[in-house]
Design a protein that fits this description.
- The complex is a heterodimer of chains A (195) and B (112).
- Chain A has 195 residues and is an alpha+beta fold.
- Chain A has one domain (6-14, 39-187).
- Chain A has helices spanning 6-12, 27-31, 51-67, 133-139, 145-149, 153-172, and strands at residues 20-21, 42-46, 71-73, 81-88, 91-102, 111-122, 127-130, 141-144, 181-185.
- In chain A, strands 2, 3, 4, 5, 6, 7, 8 and 9 form an eight-stranded antiparallel β-sheet that branches.
- Chain B is α+β, with helices and mostly antiparallel strands.
- Chain B is 15% helix and 31% strand.
- Chain B has two helices and eleven strands, in the order E-H-E-E-E-H-E-E-E-E-E-E-E.
- Chain B is globular.
- Classes of the chains: A alpha+beta (195), B alpha+beta (112).
- At the A-B interface, helix 1, strand 1, strand 2, strand 4 and strand 5 of A face strand 4, helix 2, strand 6 and strand 7 of B.
Chain lengths: 195, 112
Protein backbone atom coordinates (compact mmCIF):
# COMPACT_ATOMS: atom_id res chain seq x y z
CA UNK A 1 0.00 0.00 0.00
CA UNK A 2 1.28 3.42 -0.83
CA UNK A 3 0.62 5.71 2.07
CA UNK A 4 3.29 8.15 1.18
CA UNK A 5 2.39 11.33 2.94
CA UNK A 6 1.06 10.23 6.26
CA UNK A 7 1.73 13.46 8.07
CA UNK A 8 -0.06 15.37 5.35
CA UNK A 9 -3.18 13.33 5.91
CA UNK A 10 -2.89 13.52 9.64
CA UNK A 11 -2.90 17.29 9.43
CA UNK A 12 -5.81 17.33 7.03
CA UNK A 13 -8.05 14.91 8.82
CA UNK A 14 -10.93 15.55 11.07
CA UNK A 15 -11.09 12.73 13.54
CA UNK A 16 -14.50 11.84 14.93
CA UNK A 17 -12.93 8.91 16.69
CA UNK A 18 -14.89 6.81 19.15
CA UNK A 19 -18.14 8.42 18.15
CA UNK A 20 -21.10 6.16 17.95
CA UNK A 21 -22.72 6.85 14.61
CA UNK A 22 -26.42 6.25 14.73
CA UNK A 23 -28.54 5.82 11.64
CA UNK A 24 -32.04 7.18 12.00
CA UNK A 25 -31.19 9.70 14.65
CA UNK A 26 -28.11 11.08 12.95
CA UNK A 27 -28.56 14.24 11.03
CA UNK A 28 -26.39 13.35 8.06
CA UNK A 29 -28.73 10.53 7.05
CA UNK A 30 -31.47 13.02 6.36
CA UNK A 31 -29.22 15.35 4.41
CA UNK A 32 -27.72 12.88 1.97
CA UNK A 33 -29.42 13.27 -1.40
CA UNK A 34 -31.07 10.28 -2.98
CA UNK A 35 -28.49 7.79 -4.20
CA UNK A 36 -30.61 7.06 -7.27
CA UNK A 37 -30.96 9.62 -9.98
CA UNK A 38 -32.29 9.78 -13.52
CA UNK A 39 -28.68 9.46 -14.68
CA UNK A 40 -28.13 6.27 -12.74
CA UNK A 41 -28.31 3.99 -15.77
CA UNK A 42 -25.34 1.73 -15.14
CA UNK A 43 -24.83 -1.60 -13.44
CA UNK A 44 -21.59 -2.44 -11.67
CA UNK A 45 -18.86 -2.46 -10.63
CA UNK A 46 -18.48 -5.95 -12.07
CA UNK A 47 -15.94 -8.60 -11.25
CA UNK A 48 -13.47 -8.94 -14.13
CA UNK A 49 -13.61 -12.65 -14.68
CA UNK A 50 -10.67 -12.87 -17.05
CA UNK A 51 -7.88 -13.47 -14.53
CA UNK A 52 -5.10 -12.24 -16.84
CA UNK A 53 -6.94 -9.01 -17.49
CA UNK A 54 -7.77 -8.53 -13.83
CA UNK A 55 -4.15 -9.14 -12.87
CA UNK A 56 -2.98 -6.74 -15.58
CA UNK A 57 -5.24 -3.99 -14.29
CA UNK A 58 -4.18 -4.65 -10.71
CA UNK A 59 -0.48 -4.50 -11.47
CA UNK A 60 -0.66 -1.54 -13.84
CA UNK A 61 -2.69 0.62 -11.47
CA UNK A 62 -0.17 0.01 -8.69
CA UNK A 63 2.82 0.62 -10.95
CA UNK A 64 1.31 3.83 -12.30
CA UNK A 65 0.59 5.07 -8.78
CA UNK A 66 4.13 4.37 -7.61
CA UNK A 67 5.66 5.99 -10.66
CA UNK A 68 3.54 9.13 -10.26
CA UNK A 69 3.97 9.20 -6.47
CA UNK A 70 0.27 8.71 -5.91
CA UNK A 71 -1.52 6.72 -3.27
CA UNK A 72 -3.67 3.84 -4.38
CA UNK A 73 -6.23 1.28 -3.39
CA UNK A 74 -6.09 -1.94 -5.38
CA UNK A 75 -9.28 -4.01 -5.17
CA UNK A 76 -10.82 -1.62 -2.69
CA UNK A 77 -12.47 -3.55 0.14
CA UNK A 78 -11.56 -6.64 -1.89
CA UNK A 79 -14.02 -5.61 -4.61
CA UNK A 80 -13.11 -4.97 -8.28
CA UNK A 81 -12.54 -1.25 -7.85
CA UNK A 82 -9.19 0.54 -8.04
CA UNK A 83 -8.27 4.08 -7.04
CA UNK A 84 -5.28 6.29 -7.50
CA UNK A 85 -5.41 9.51 -5.54
CA UNK A 86 -3.49 12.39 -4.05
CA UNK A 87 -4.44 15.14 -1.64
CA UNK A 88 -3.52 18.62 -2.82
CA UNK A 89 -4.36 20.97 0.01
CA UNK A 90 -8.06 20.71 0.73
CA UNK A 91 -8.88 18.91 -2.50
CA UNK A 92 -8.23 15.21 -3.06
CA UNK A 93 -7.96 14.27 -6.72
CA UNK A 94 -8.59 10.70 -7.78
CA UNK A 95 -9.23 8.31 -10.62
CA UNK A 96 -11.51 5.35 -10.08
CA UNK A 97 -11.09 2.28 -12.28
CA UNK A 98 -13.92 -0.27 -12.48
CA UNK A 99 -16.08 -2.18 -14.95
CA UNK A 100 -19.67 -1.11 -15.58
CA UNK A 101 -22.35 -1.85 -18.13
CA UNK A 102 -25.20 0.35 -19.22
CA UNK A 103 -28.62 -1.06 -18.42
CA UNK A 104 -29.47 -1.65 -22.06
CA UNK A 105 -26.16 -3.38 -22.91
CA UNK A 106 -25.71 -7.12 -23.20
CA UNK A 107 -23.57 -8.92 -20.61
CA UNK A 108 -20.52 -9.04 -22.89
CA UNK A 109 -20.60 -5.29 -23.47
CA UNK A 110 -19.17 -4.25 -20.12
CA UNK A 111 -16.49 -1.59 -20.27
CA UNK A 112 -13.62 -0.60 -18.06
CA UNK A 113 -14.30 2.97 -16.95
CA UNK A 114 -11.74 5.42 -15.65
CA UNK A 115 -13.54 8.13 -13.70
CA UNK A 116 -11.53 11.26 -12.86
CA UNK A 117 -12.86 12.84 -9.70
CA UNK A 118 -12.17 15.33 -6.93
CA UNK A 119 -13.67 16.10 -3.58
CA UNK A 120 -13.12 18.05 -0.43
CA UNK A 121 -14.39 18.17 3.10
CA UNK A 122 -15.52 21.61 4.12
CA UNK A 123 -14.20 21.80 7.64
CA UNK A 124 -16.59 24.38 9.05
CA UNK A 125 -19.64 22.14 8.62
CA UNK A 126 -18.06 18.78 7.63
CA UNK A 127 -19.79 18.80 4.25
CA UNK A 128 -18.40 16.34 1.73
CA UNK A 129 -18.34 18.01 -1.67
CA UNK A 130 -17.64 16.59 -5.10
CA UNK A 131 -18.20 17.25 -8.79
CA UNK A 132 -21.71 17.61 -10.23
CA UNK A 133 -22.96 14.53 -12.07
CA UNK A 134 -22.88 16.12 -15.50
CA UNK A 135 -19.26 17.19 -14.98
CA UNK A 136 -18.21 13.64 -14.16
CA UNK A 137 -20.11 12.21 -17.08
CA UNK A 138 -18.23 14.40 -19.54
CA UNK A 139 -14.74 13.31 -18.47
CA UNK A 140 -14.98 9.55 -18.03
CA UNK A 141 -12.83 7.34 -20.23
CA UNK A 142 -13.80 3.82 -21.19
CA UNK A 143 -12.55 0.81 -23.06
CA UNK A 144 -14.58 -2.32 -23.81
CA UNK A 145 -13.38 -5.26 -21.73
CA UNK A 146 -13.71 -7.36 -24.86
CA UNK A 147 -10.99 -5.37 -26.62
CA UNK A 148 -8.68 -5.40 -23.59
CA UNK A 149 -8.95 -9.17 -23.24
CA UNK A 150 -7.31 -9.68 -26.60
CA UNK A 151 -4.17 -7.73 -25.81
CA UNK A 152 -0.79 -9.11 -24.85
CA UNK A 153 0.47 -8.29 -21.36
CA UNK A 154 2.72 -5.52 -22.70
CA UNK A 155 0.05 -4.04 -24.95
CA UNK A 156 -2.46 -4.10 -22.09
CA UNK A 157 -0.02 -2.33 -19.82
CA UNK A 158 0.71 0.32 -22.46
CA UNK A 159 -2.98 0.85 -23.12
CA UNK A 160 -3.87 1.15 -19.43
CA UNK A 161 -0.92 3.43 -18.77
CA UNK A 162 -2.11 5.81 -21.47
CA UNK A 163 -5.66 5.77 -20.14
CA UNK A 164 -4.52 6.28 -16.55
CA UNK A 165 -2.24 9.12 -17.60
CA UNK A 166 -5.02 10.90 -19.45
CA UNK A 167 -7.54 10.36 -16.64
CA UNK A 168 -5.08 11.55 -13.99
CA UNK A 169 -4.29 14.67 -16.00
CA UNK A 170 -8.01 15.44 -16.06
CA UNK A 171 -8.51 14.68 -12.37
CA UNK A 172 -5.66 16.81 -11.09
CA UNK A 173 -6.96 19.88 -12.92
CA UNK A 174 -10.28 19.96 -11.06
CA UNK A 175 -10.48 23.06 -8.90
CA UNK A 176 -12.07 23.63 -5.53
CA UNK A 177 -14.76 25.93 -6.95
CA UNK A 178 -15.97 23.11 -9.24
CA UNK A 179 -16.87 20.90 -6.27
CA UNK A 180 -20.41 22.11 -5.77
CA UNK A 181 -22.28 18.89 -5.18
CA UNK A 182 -22.90 18.02 -1.54
CA UNK A 183 -22.84 14.37 -0.53
CA UNK A 184 -23.97 15.23 2.99
CA UNK A 185 -22.38 15.81 6.34
CA UNK A 186 -19.73 13.48 7.69
CA UNK A 187 -20.30 11.56 10.87
CA UNK A 188 -19.86 13.62 13.98
CA UNK A 189 -17.84 16.63 14.80
CA UNK A 190 -14.17 16.63 15.70
CA UNK A 191 -13.39 15.31 19.12
CA UNK A 192 -11.32 18.05 20.75
CA UNK A 193 -9.56 15.52 22.97
CA UNK A 194 -7.82 14.12 19.91
CA UNK A 195 -6.20 17.35 18.78
CA UNK B 1 -8.69 3.91 21.21
CA UNK B 2 -10.17 0.80 19.61
CA UNK B 3 -10.65 0.12 15.93
CA UNK B 4 -13.71 -1.44 14.31
CA UNK B 5 -13.93 -3.86 11.39
CA UNK B 6 -17.22 -4.28 9.56
CA UNK B 7 -18.13 -7.20 7.38
CA UNK B 8 -20.89 -9.56 6.27
CA UNK B 9 -22.44 -12.21 8.49
CA UNK B 10 -20.98 -14.93 6.26
CA UNK B 11 -17.45 -13.54 6.40
CA UNK B 12 -17.71 -13.08 10.17
CA UNK B 13 -18.82 -16.69 10.43
CA UNK B 14 -15.87 -17.86 8.33
CA UNK B 15 -13.46 -15.87 10.49
CA UNK B 16 -14.94 -17.12 13.75
CA UNK B 17 -14.97 -20.77 12.61
CA UNK B 18 -11.38 -20.71 11.43
CA UNK B 19 -8.53 -22.08 13.53
CA UNK B 20 -6.52 -20.06 14.40
CA UNK B 21 -9.08 -17.28 14.47
CA UNK B 22 -7.62 -14.47 12.38
CA UNK B 23 -8.85 -11.64 10.23
CA UNK B 24 -6.61 -11.96 7.20
CA UNK B 25 -6.01 -9.49 4.38
CA UNK B 26 -8.04 -10.31 1.28
CA UNK B 27 -7.30 -9.65 -2.41
CA UNK B 28 -6.58 -6.01 -1.59
CA UNK B 29 -3.81 -7.26 0.72
CA UNK B 30 -5.24 -5.00 3.38
CA UNK B 31 -7.61 -5.24 6.31
CA UNK B 32 -9.89 -2.22 6.43
CA UNK B 33 -10.60 -0.73 9.84
CA UNK B 34 -12.15 2.44 11.16
CA UNK B 35 -11.98 4.24 14.50
CA UNK B 36 -15.69 5.03 14.19
CA UNK B 37 -18.27 2.86 15.94
CA UNK B 38 -21.10 2.48 13.46
CA UNK B 39 -24.28 0.82 14.62
CA UNK B 40 -26.32 0.77 11.39
CA UNK B 41 -25.23 -1.37 8.45
CA UNK B 42 -26.08 0.91 5.56
CA UNK B 43 -24.51 3.93 7.26
CA UNK B 44 -21.25 2.02 7.68
CA UNK B 45 -21.45 0.74 4.08
CA UNK B 46 -22.04 4.25 2.75
CA UNK B 47 -19.44 6.06 4.83
CA UNK B 48 -16.74 3.43 4.39
CA UNK B 49 -17.57 2.68 0.71
CA UNK B 50 -18.13 -1.02 1.33
CA UNK B 51 -20.13 -2.72 -1.41
CA UNK B 52 -20.78 -6.10 0.18
CA UNK B 53 -23.33 -6.56 2.95
CA UNK B 54 -22.35 -4.85 6.19
CA UNK B 55 -24.03 -6.78 8.96
CA UNK B 56 -21.46 -7.48 11.67
CA UNK B 57 -18.88 -5.39 13.48
CA UNK B 58 -16.02 -6.28 15.75
CA UNK B 59 -14.23 -4.00 18.18
CA UNK B 60 -10.46 -4.46 18.06
CA UNK B 61 -8.16 -3.05 20.75
CA UNK B 62 -5.47 -0.83 19.34
CA UNK B 63 -2.67 -3.09 20.54
CA UNK B 64 -3.87 -5.96 18.35
CA UNK B 65 -3.39 -3.97 15.14
CA UNK B 66 0.16 -4.01 13.78
CA UNK B 67 1.38 -1.11 11.67
CA UNK B 68 -1.93 0.67 11.18
CA UNK B 69 -1.94 3.38 8.53
CA UNK B 70 -2.81 6.93 9.40
CA UNK B 71 -6.55 7.48 8.92
CA UNK B 72 -7.74 8.83 5.62
CA UNK B 73 -11.24 9.48 4.34
CA UNK B 74 -12.81 6.54 2.49
CA UNK B 75 -13.11 6.89 -1.28
CA UNK B 76 -16.30 7.88 -3.08
CA UNK B 77 -17.44 5.26 -5.58
CA UNK B 78 -19.29 6.66 -8.57
CA UNK B 79 -20.77 5.11 -11.65
CA UNK B 80 -19.86 6.50 -15.09
CA UNK B 81 -22.80 8.88 -15.12
CA UNK B 82 -21.61 10.45 -11.88
CA UNK B 83 -24.27 8.82 -9.70
CA UNK B 84 -23.04 7.77 -6.30
CA UNK B 85 -22.58 4.08 -5.60
CA UNK B 86 -21.04 4.69 -2.16
CA UNK B 87 -20.54 8.12 -0.67
CA UNK B 88 -17.40 7.38 1.35
CA UNK B 89 -15.88 10.04 3.57
CA UNK B 90 -15.76 7.92 6.72
CA UNK B 91 -12.43 7.33 8.41
CA UNK B 92 -10.41 4.46 7.02
CA UNK B 93 -7.39 2.81 8.59
CA UNK B 94 -5.64 -0.18 7.07
CA UNK B 95 -3.15 -2.81 8.07
CA UNK B 96 -1.58 -5.60 6.07
CA UNK B 97 -0.99 -7.77 9.12
CA UNK B 98 -3.45 -10.47 10.29
CA UNK B 99 -5.46 -9.67 13.41
CA UNK B 100 -5.99 -12.26 16.14
CA UNK B 101 -9.70 -12.34 16.99
CA UNK B 102 -9.41 -14.27 20.24
CA UNK B 103 -11.70 -12.70 22.82
CA UNK B 104 -12.95 -9.86 20.65
CA UNK B 105 -16.39 -8.34 20.97
CA UNK B 106 -18.57 -8.93 17.90
CA UNK B 107 -21.91 -7.21 17.40
CA UNK B 108 -24.75 -7.06 14.89
CA UNK B 109 -25.49 -3.85 13.05
CA UNK B 110 -29.03 -2.55 12.74
CA UNK B 111 -30.94 -2.89 9.48
CA UNK B 112 -32.39 0.18 7.73
Amino acid sequence: MAIGSVSHYRDALILPIRRIVMGKSHSHTNLVPSLKSPMDNFQGPFEIKDTSLERGINITVQDFARQQDLEYRARYHDEPVWFIFRADGEVTHSVQVAAFRSLDASPDEAKLFLIPDARLIRKNDLQLLTLPEDRTEKVVLSEPLRSLKGLSADALRDKLYRLLGKAWETARKFKKHELTRSLGILAGSPDPKLH
Amino acid sequence: MPYFHFTSRKTAQDILCGIPGLINPGPSRLIFLTPTHYTVGHVAAGDLAIQKEVEIGVMIPEDLVNNPSAPIHAQTIKNPSGAIVRRGGGLEVTTNQPIDINGLNWFSLDQP
